[in-house]
Records
---
Amino acid sequence: MEHVRRFIAERDMFARHLGIEITEAARGYARAVMPLDAHHRNGVGMAHGGAIFAVADLAFAVACNTRGRVSVNLNTSISFLAPGKCGPLTAEAREISAARRVATYEIRITDGEGTLIAICQATAYSKNQPVPGLASAGTPRSAD
Amino acid sequence: MEHVRRFIAERDMFARHLGIEITEAARGYARAVMPLDAHHRNGVGMAHGGAIFAVADLAFAVACNTRGRVSVNLNTSISFLAPGKCGPLTAEAREISAARRVATYEIRITDGEGTLIAICQATAYSKNQPVPGLASAGTPRSAD
Amino acid sequence: MEHVRRFIAERDMFARHLGIEITEAARGYARAVMPLDAHHRNGVGMAHGGAIFAVADLAFAVACNTRGRVSVNLNTSISFLAPGKCGPLTAEAREISAARRVATYEIRITDGEGTLIAICQATAYSKNQPVPGLASAGTPRSAD
Amino acid sequence: MEHVRRFIAERDMFARHLGIEITEAARGYARAVMPLDAHHRNGVGMAHGGAIFAVADLAFAVACNTRGRVSVNLNTSISFLAPGKCGPLTAEAREISAARRVATYEIRITDGEGTLIAICQATAYSKNQPVPGLASAGTPRSAD
């Protein structure tokens, strides 16, 4: 867990750029938190769809790499449910199903008032490589 | 077009934070470009899934707001096809179908070498409000 | 509820052709059941992806029309998790979120042994028309 | 091709039950056709969402199995664009991208007048097994 948090904090430059932190991780589960500052907002001052996806993707990346092999994001379907007005945004990723190479996750994103603002259904593919400090968490797939 | 570019450049703080620019916009179409700097990358140095989604979302937002009414993102399915190694990333959104309130778009994202790295299928909902300088481009839906 | 069951049984010819029955319906919720006969199976004898989608779509259609206005399916993302070996297949649709015109549902499909074989994330659009005996349940959208 | 058509016609009982035929297949491509009879329609007389998905799924199944290894459907996102009023419905599946184990397809479904009524984005996983007469075409994934 501390290992995961440190990896994201030190190596994932995009997560750092957006201020995303991993606040919990367990087998098949992770929670990520992101502040909702001016630079996470769109032209009308709400949480940007891209920022909402980003925090969800980080939670998913950590959750699916907890299984010990490098996993990549094949596909994510995100539904936007309500505007995110206040931070921080919290994303929780939970494993729904896992076979040898493919796993499916659900991710729920809430705003600072606890309102559910988006949900995702995501599919991960596990490569035949051990996770080197969660090195490729959430990497869009490379030649598999 | 110039109007759109300026709006994104000045008002969409998330797009600014990621250096995303709108380089073309026409009715039902838009192209957005984002550099691939260190802070757009994940722990293994590839384009971050969240960054790829962000540039796609911006192109989609502009494309669907070109129809003149405030449109919001209901759902986007993104499939990651290949790692993004070099920038800039370019996203092109094209309208596939549009009814009075709902429209469907396809978005293709390529890296600096022209490799197709992701595709999206996205659904937008048009509110009964004129676009005030494209004010809500890509806003996740508020109470409709 | 009895009204709903009768409507599907009498008017939805596709549901009849596949033997799908609505076994429960409440505001924002529905359950549909389908036998797993030879004609619901694919070339290797498992539940066909199309049959799995069909029972899920029926549950979704009924669930979203319980809100009283004609609703249509805009988009459904279905993830297949495990093969369906034995029947009947049961699909349960639950409302995750509902705004004035747009609602989001989750659908879970289990086989006869209770194994979760697929999940869906679905977006419905409500027209400005009262449901005439749930007449258009699950109809892909017409000109809205 | 003839091999494929015969396999679907003889072994895929669900496709038979709906009258779906494979009318063309090439590497990474397939076209399937389904009549639009009373039993393919919903309560208001339009093509049923489940029937539209079924013909799309068959085209996808054949297209992804043309690569020679057993492929299964991991996830499909289907967007409904317009009502299908007249038959036959035609689905064309095209490979967008293919890596060693994972491939992504786009499927377009048109009605008898050539109107685009739905599009799909679909992800397939290739098992390490040769296709035995396309035996598992489109099978939702089994333990991989």
---
Amino acid sequence: MEEKPSRVERPRVESLDEILGQPLDVLDDGFVRVVDYMGADDSIVQAARVSYGKGTKQVHEDRGLIRYLLRHRHTTPFEMCDIKLHVRVPMDCWRQWIRHRTASVNEYSTRYSIAIDAAQETAPGDWRMQAAGNRQGSGGSLEAATGARLTEREAELHALARDVYQERLEHGVAREQARKDLPLATYTEAYWKVNLHNLLHFLRLRMDDHAQLEIRSYARTIGHEIVSRWVPLTWQAFLDYHIGATSLTRLERGVLQAITAGHPDEALRLAESFGLLARGADGLKRNRERAEMEAKLAEFGVEVPWKE
Amino acid sequence: MEEKPSRVERPRVESLDEILGQPLDVLDDGFVRVVDYMGADDSIVQAARVSYGKGTKQVHEDRGLIRYLLRHRHTTPFEMCDIKLHVRVPMDCWRQWIRHRTASVNEYSTRYSIAIDAAQETAPGDWRMQAAGNRQGSGGSLEAATGARLTEREAELHALARDVYQERLEHGVAREQARKDLPLATYTEAYWKVNLHNLLHFLRLRMDDHAQLEIRSYARTIGHEIVSRWVPLTWQAFLDYHIGATSLTRLERGVLQAITAGHPDEALRLAESFGLLARGADGLKRNRERAEMEAKLAEFGVEVPWKE
Amino acid sequence: MEEKPSRVERPRVESLDEILGQPLDVLDDGFVRVVDYMGADDSIVQAARVSYGKGTKQVHEDRGLIRYLLRHRHTTPFEMCDIKLHVRVPMDCWRQWIRHRTASVNEYSTRYSIAIDAAQETAPGDWRMQAAGNRQGSGGSLEAATGARLTEREAELHALARDVYQERLEHGVAREQARKDLPLATYTEAYWKVNLHNLLHFLRLRMDDHAQLEIRSYARTIGHEIVSRWVPLTWQAFLDYHIGATSLTRLERGVLQAITAGHPDEALRLAESFGLLARGADGLKRNRERAEMEAKLAEFGVEVPWKE
Amino acid sequence: MEEKPSRVERPRVESLDEILGQPLDVLDDGFVRVVDYMGADDSIVQAARVSYGKGTKQVHEDRGLIRYLLRHRHTTPFEMCDIKLHVRVPMDCWRQWIRHRTASVNEYSTRYSIAIDAAQETAPGDWRMQAAGNRQGSGGSLEAATGARLTEREAELHALARDVYQERLEHGVAREQARKDLPLATYTEAYWKVNLHNLLHFLRLRMDDHAQLEIRSYARTIGHEIVSRWVPLTWQAFLDYHIGATSLTRLERGVLQAITAGHPDEALRLAESFGLLARGADGLKRNRERAEMEAKLAEFGVEVPWKE
């Protein structure tokens, strides 16, 4: 790195510039739009090469280097890209969003200004049922008539909440106090700036099927509509190595090895030793870790050597 | 530091141990309680002395060293103490709290469990008026009759919100969706762990008169009831050097110097050059920076050499 | 969570208390010792249960819950435990250590005090050869005679560096400048406080075979001697789900599925479409991703359907 | 904020673009150059206005708003600007730099590549003496003859260190180990990305007279040559409210008030009650806090009512 490099231009990404500033709709009244960004796939490569020194330029091409970095969790070069989004999102959803701490935020202030006059509304067909197997998820929709009734009641509640808010303001109550009973679904807006490494972490958690539908909708829009345009090489690597990857625990590896090597008895012994095969009156006791293992092995057409 | 030090005991703070686990009431139905802590005033001294090497033990005594560190913003030793609180707080207030990013948090999940059946209620005399001079503050109370009416309406809204929530749950709506219209004032609970440096930063902002009454109530309880017991030397230094301190800008210093040196003309010239003395039809234009300067100089009995 | 909980005791860990303050030797003249800690396996469970509400206590037992949390990357409860270490470590190694940003640090100051009179020394048999396949690793030892020669030269350099340092100090050169040519291997000391989540991340990277021997020695001591005593349930889960786990990329899953389902042609097509089977004059071109895939499949006794 | 805003352009700063990529020399062989940036003074205003809602645009003009934000520590809008620098800096200095944790870093790797063949050299006139009053500072220069001798010895040490390093590499020692005795003054390079808020914090500490000359040289170049071009309004506000400001402690305010109000006896009582006036055999004992107070009061021409 002896030669001092000369003047550079800021990297630009044509395909992202095309949508700069344009709101991408999410939910009934939300949006995400890109306000600014810094860096591109190139910048990741450039930062990584500072670490490697100049001698290595010939060896790796950009795509290969980016994929290598992401596959092997060399995360720092991905911090060299930043994006700034303007989002409009229900406060309820924002409460989850804001738990990602490594980002910069300026949120619309309902102390300073009157609250945005909009709350997320639910169409009759969009009421989701509590998931059976998962205490924190949802699955399936309520039947139409019930949905219609709940949507009516939602409108009633929104109307009362808005009336009460207005009434307080008209009587001169401070905005900071008047807002106290707004519904959690009230929309807020914010500027949210995050680096690419932390954004990918956010997407990994929030694009997932276990994430709540609302934040998942934002995450998928950000991923598929924005990140894919901004850093296409990184995005593909992310799909290949994070979203589409799976992890095998020490035990799952051991059991899979034993079975593929033709030693089902060894697989049994291992599962036993990890406490996965405890039995009750009616066969094997429910065991979450075992269920997860069985699902993974099934993906590879491998049958487990124990019976329910 | 050549000698390897021998076995140590974990530092304990008797006066904090006395209230460990005990909820301290805040607002109508909130609390703060200490769950655990690490370190004490001693630990700050000990960490600072790692930096200084052993030779300096005789020179400073603990109190002096802590005060020196805090006065001169040597902040790292204060990171060596941690405290873990269990808090119960309205979500509205929690939204402000959580913006302090350098803390660890586990919050009660209304995806996983049914929401806590309590929202902050406002007594008729506790409705605060919008502040006149400050767009984001409050000041004074509404008169009793209006307050009574607003409190009634608040109860009506809380009741409807709770009914709608129950109705959704009874129809099998997923908890994550059923909660969407809970009032912002609904109580939540969380474990919040923070180091002393970041806690003092939190307290500096949130104990301040400009902070909203609700979070200010929590901050003052934490400061006066908890931190004062935990690290009394640090607490006193914090009151002396942060809470009770004031800052003079470059311009304020210049004007104060000029006036105390008997050069009011120079003070005028300075203020003019900073654009603080722009005039309109009816005298000096409103200028926030000038107003702040005048308030500070008045504290020291100094009259400014310009006229409204 | 309606009942307000009563007084609690700080959690203690007997097996960790036994070694509190005792230096555990690392390298020729370094050490790690535990100065203080907060929390235990119990505290992780307790924090997680704040999220879940009280109703769930019967369902999970502690061990199962901790394993579930770690397996599914529910990381926040692990932030609820903290540990404070006093370490003595060569500056060269410390330069890597300090790159982990989410920790609190007080380091011995060579501006303030005279540098510690010790630098890491290399025994004749401990000179490591540059790794062949890995540009940033080492492998194998130099032969004895060369090692002896290099050790002699190291001593010569250390002696000169120390002389020059002393000379500068004797002539009244400021400590901050006098230190400028100390060898990177000079020992420093620091207090390092980190939460369990971030510590596990540190250990995952630094206990790894790819980490440099020096920092790996510290990491393994911290892991095997300290964390294993402090939070034994978490430690075991960490070995099972992080250290002993492996990850299969989207492509690796696809290829493995195709092969186990008896469709080697499909596996070939997939690998081809990912660009892993490019050919040069003498067969398949070197491809790092393909090599990694082959190694993983071999672990499960699966032969790849392509030939070198 | 009801209207969804339309397409935007990325903010550009002409005066910064002019020096993009150009190395600004620091020390004998170091540099700083801007590689990329995001945002401008405008972006701070824009982010702040998200908080305030659109109604306020007319009230504040940009300059006034930026100054208000900085004066009142509304720090989040300043996080909305980022800058990426390429720096070349002695490792010794980098050790201080890297302690600022809220930045992203890619450093030249001497595990991966051969170390940069340059170490900071000291001209005969540049040897600094240990400060008398400040254990961690320097002041004044050594006399020429001594300086010349020390510079010679420095060259001797650098030569031996380089020889030993080369020798190790030639014998096949791994780069990660070969580097262990390089002088701390060896140059390294890095990409360093930081947001404006954290950069100002860095500059406040490192432009200060108490910072070591080396890092101060970098900080001043970054401040005066780069930040001043990038965000000129913020830079001026920073000079006025941070660099040029002073702080008065609770006690200093009290004493100054008492004196200016004509109550020197009250000032005495206060100082006494704070323990600043302890006496020994030969008058007042040395007391750092008192000395600091006296210096501040002297700035305003105020004489203290106690005698040495």
